[in-house]
Design brief:
Keywords: Signal. This is Thioredoxin family protein. It comes from Sphingobacterium athyrii. By secondary structure, the protein is of the alpha+beta class. It folds into 2 domains: about 1-35, no CATH class; about 45-165, 3-Layer(aba) Sandwich (Glutaredoxin), CATH 3.40.30.10. The chain is about 50% helix and about 15% strand. The protein has helices at about 1-15, 20-35, 45-60, 75-85, 85-95, 110-115, 155-165, and strands at about 65-70, 95-105, 130, 140-145, 150, 150-155. A 4-stranded mixed beta sheet has the order 2-1-3-4. The longest helix has 18 residues, at about 20-35. The radius of gyration is 18 Å and the shape is globular.
């Protein structure tokens, strides 16, 4: 046990200030998860849901944004909260896109859906985004790290990302 404590302490010294930050974040994560809405549904038939969205996308001439992640993922929940609380982003999404939360969890990994739309997506971390055109063709797969700012997201970067994929 003493060796484990020393190893942990040694890792903390090597990591410098990252250790207290990581510990603080780990302690904060359950609180954040309990406070934010849970938009992912492991029980859903994701392909059926996406097929329905694509029919609507054709009618409304909108692209589909799929946010891949799970209710276990603090950054996934933060992004969902952020896009709804940031008026400019919420307005853009509601007027120009159809939006779907594609679940990835131990209960339902949705492997076939991920393979179909973003086979490389799991390498990106969560959340990541899949942009589909009205025909269901994957236009773009986007990681989310470049959209972050501190413990949230950067409005300008998020708007730039979404605006780049508005249906023409």
């Amino acid at each position: 046990m003493r060796r484990i404590k020393l190893l942990f302490l040694g890792m903390g010294v090597l990591m410098g200030v990252q250790l207290p930050h990581s510990i603080a974040f780990a302690q904060e994560a359950p609180k954040i998860q309990s406070e934010l809405s849970k938009p992912y549904h492991p029980e859903a038939d994701a392909q059926k849901d996406i097929d329905s969205l694509l029919k609507l996308a054709k009618k409304e001439k909108k692209n589909v944004i799929i946010q891949a992640g799970g209710n276990w993922c603090v950054w996934c929940l933060r992004f969902n909260d952020y896009i709804h609380k940031t008026a400019s982003i919420d307005k853009l999404l509601k007027s120009r896109f159809l939006y779907y939360h594609l679940n990835y969890s131990k209960e339902n990994k949705n492997e076939m859906v991920f393979q179909k739309y973003a086979p490389e997506g799991g390498k990106l971390g969560y959340p990541f985004f899949i942009v589909l055109d009205i025909n269901g063709k994957t236009l773009h797969v986007q990681e989310s790290g470049s959209l972050e700012k501190d413990k949230s997201y950067d409005e300008e970067k998020v708007l730039k990302f979404f605006n780049a994929w508005v249906a023409k």
